[in-house]
Amino acid sequence: MFILKLIIRNCFRHPLRLLLTIAGVAVAVIAFGLLRTLVELWYLGAESSSSTRLITRNSISLVFSLPISYKEKIRQVQGVEKVANANWFGGIYKTEKNFFPNFAVDPQNYLDLYPEFVLSPEERGAFLRDRKGAVAGRKLAAKHGWKIGDQITLKGTIFPGQWEFVLRGIYRGAQRTTDESQFFFHWNYLNETLKQTMARRADQTGIFVIGVKKADQAAEAAEAVDAQFKNSLAETLTETEKAFQLSFVAMTEAIVIAIQIVSYVVIVIIMVVAANTMAMTARERIAEYATLKALGFGPFHIGGVIFGESLAISLAGGALGIALTFPAAGWIETELSQFFPVFHVTTVTVLLDLAAATVVGSVAAIFPTWRGVTIRVADGLRRIG
Amino acid sequence: MTEGPLVEIVNVAKSYRRGSQVVPVLEDITFSIAAGEFLALMGPSGSGKSTLLNLIAGIDTVDSGTITIGGVNITTLAETELAAWRALHVGFIFQFYNLMPVLTAFENVELPLLLTRLSRRDRREHVATVLELVGLADRMDHYPSQLSGGQQQRVAIARAMVTDPTILVADEPTGDLDRVSAGEILSLMDRLVADFGKTIIMVTHDPRAAEKAHLIRHLEKGVLTNS
Questions:
Q1: What does pLDDT average to over chain B?
Q2: Chain A contact present for B60, CB below 8 A
Q3: Best interface-test mutation with B: which of A3, A6, A7, A291 has the largest number of B CBs within 10 A?
Q4: B114 contacts chain A (CB < 8 A)
Q5: Any idea what the CATH number is for the domain that residue B39 is in?
């Protein structure tokens, strides 16, 4: 109780120093939290992927397409329950700044395979019925002020021309981490247009999304699918959705590692600053610690007072930082949604923030605590006035 | 309590190391102090009087010799035993008061009692009694910064007295005070000896302060020059 009282009162002895230290730790924790969230975001696609979904693509590269005729053959493979084809469309809405992912899909099967894209039965029905119909995520629709029935024109980049769609549905994510900034439309609409304008590019698709009955059938089904198209003009590579997503992450792994390093460097910097502050504080109070020792107080008391103060300040900064991380992440999600459609601070990140603040407070206290505990009373008492 | 002198110092020597050089501070000090005595240690700066006081108070250790206080040879005690012994037997009065600035007068005086098994209520009673004794009962909720130098020293004396220690050690207790406040503090210390039978060992440069003592011992270059 006495130690706690002394810790609390000592914390407030230099209000400005306290404020600046707390602010420093808070800023570091915010930076750490946001950078960790960014790293998690990188892996979000992989983490939220389904274990019962497989992706089949051209074995040479994703750039090369696959014949749509493969679809029926894949459907007949044992263990395969559903197959949908999808194409990266790469359309631009008004200007390139308005980037959002847009895909031409086999709507019925695609929506069945991705139950995380939640549509009302009415909107789903309207989308399926209309060949020029499209579905947009809630955030995307909100950002551009789209309403059901709006006509949306995308300028094709991979498939040149002006492509007109009618918004038939606005989906919401089943989970908080579901990307609500995507745009889907009928692959048939794309294909029929291509048949008229670029016949050689018709009847092709980018990937097949395969749904298997059970997760433990995935490996076997993937092998069977690839075996079926071995020695064909377009050999396939079938992998789990997670592996498919991780292949994208691998392309940018150096950036992820750099961000991770920066996140730890931020913590190390604030640790050094906090250690300096605590060392300064302990140096100023060395005569007080010596007096307590002279009165009979032991290392536990002296160490507790110094360590407790460091930890209390650091945790206060950590708590403030964690509290501010959420609005900061919210701002990023709103204002930079084209880059970060989901910027959700997870419990793991909060726990890491807390751990970082604890480590900062503990490490910063090591030297001052050691100094306070080991100083000889007579030497400490000389440091007065 | 044992028969004979309360404090017995026998052949005590102390030196400090300064790099590779050994600097002797005290040499072959032998003397004793009876219970209820008020002793002043005088001498020029660097004569070793504060070092001797620290050794008697158990906050520094001898190189050789023995110091026995109330029958306990404190030179044989380990660091933790010495801390426990100090808490029970020594009351400290410092030149610069050494009060905790974040604690009130009451809380400062209560500090040594926190190491005892006294209940909160008993602690309150003890603290109130000694603050009354030093004439600061009405200032118990004041922080050191809200008190004058003389008042702070009186709080320090109350803190030194609250555990009813075997000895009180005072290092230049009036060194930071004006003449009036110094006079009040010395009168108070005199009362502690006369009315409560306390044993006080005081280091001072001030001849007026030394006058209050029953006995004055002079140190010169680490050696006692009179007895």
A1: 91
A2: yes
A3: A291
A4: yes
A5: 3.40.50.300
Q: Report the number of distinct structural domains present in chain A.
A: 2
Shared-domain flag, residues A270 and A357: yes
Residue B103 in tokens? 């604690």
Residues A174 and A211 in one domain: yes
* pLDDT tier for residue A385 given thresholds of 50, 70 and 90: very low
For residue B98, list chain A residues with Cβ-Cβ distance below 8 A: 287-288, 291, 381, 384
At B143, list the tokens.
Answer: 């922080």
Q: Report whether pLDDT(B227) > 60.
A: no
Number of domains in chain B: 1
Provide the 8-state DSSP code for A115: T
Q: Are residues A277 and A220 in the same domain?
A: no
- The residue assigned the tokens 């139950």 is A115
**pLDDT 10s digits, A190-229:** 999 999 998 899 999 999 999 998 888 899 999 999 999 9
Give per-residue pLDDT as tens, A218-274.
999 999 999 999 999 899 999 999 999 888 888 888 888 999 999 999 989 988 888
Chain A residues in contact with B112 (beta carbon < 8 A): 295-296
Taking CB atoms and an 8 Å limit, are B87 and A293 in contact across chains?
no
* Distance between CA atoms of residues B6 and A21, nearest Å: 51
Q: Is pLDDT above 90 for A1?
A: no
Residue contact B83–A378, C-beta within 8 A:
no
Contact flag A6-B102 (C-beta cutoff 8 Å): yes
Owning domain of residue A7: 2-44+253-382
- What CA–CA distance (Å, rounded) separates A338 from A321? 25
Whether residues A258 and A112 share a domain: the answer is: no
List phi, psi (to 5°) of B96: -105, 25
Instruction: Report yes or no on A240 lying in a domain.
Output: no
Nearest residue in chain B measured CA to CA from A286: B98
- Does A370 contact chain B (CB < 8 Å)? no
A23 and A113 co-located in one domain: no
pLDDT digits (tens, 9 = 90+) for A73-101: 999 999 999 999 999 999 999 998 888 99
Which ipTM did the prediction report?
Answer: 0.90
Residues A74 and A215 in one domain: yes
Q: Is A224 exposed, middle or buried (0-12, 13-18, 19+ CB in 10 A)?
A: middle
Closest CA to A45 of A269, A270, A268, A245: A245
Say whether both A14 and A104 belong to one domain. no
